[in-house]
Fold this sequence. Notes:
This protein is 99% helix and 0% strand. The protein is mostly helical. The chain has one helix spanning 2-160. The longest helix has 159 residues, at 2-160. The N and C termini lie far apart (148 Å). It is elongated.
Amino acid sequence: xxxxxxxxxxxxxxxxxxxxxxxxxxxxxxxxxxxxxxxxxxxxxxxxxxxxxxxxxxxxxxxxxxxxxxxxxxxxxxxxxxxxxxxxxxxxxxxxxxxxxxxxxxxxxxxxxxxxxxxxxxxxxxxxxxxxxxxxxxxxxxxxxxxxxxxxxxxxxxxxx
Length: 161
């Protein structure tokens, strides 16, 4: 029995060794990946130093551009004053246009009232036409009956003669 227990312990121990070996290999892979990342980071830092030198040059250019921008802003301010005058004139024109549009809307509303009136008349005319059609049908039917009676009388008269 002690031997069976000892065998189980050895099997468990070997299982733990296998697990430890897998973890060590995975850790070794992680360390290699980190070493490659460090190499990339060193290359990135060299690029960053170069970019910082370029940035210093760009900042000097930006200072020059800011002086130009201040001059342009003074011109822009002058243009804005002119634009305000133009906008005041445009507002006057828009007020006039609104008055014209209100007049036009009144005219359109009057036309709508007239169109509704015409529509009502057309509906009444359609009703009259329908009644007239029924009357004409009735007249045609009664006329047909009279023709048939007259024909019958004529046939009877011919038979007598």
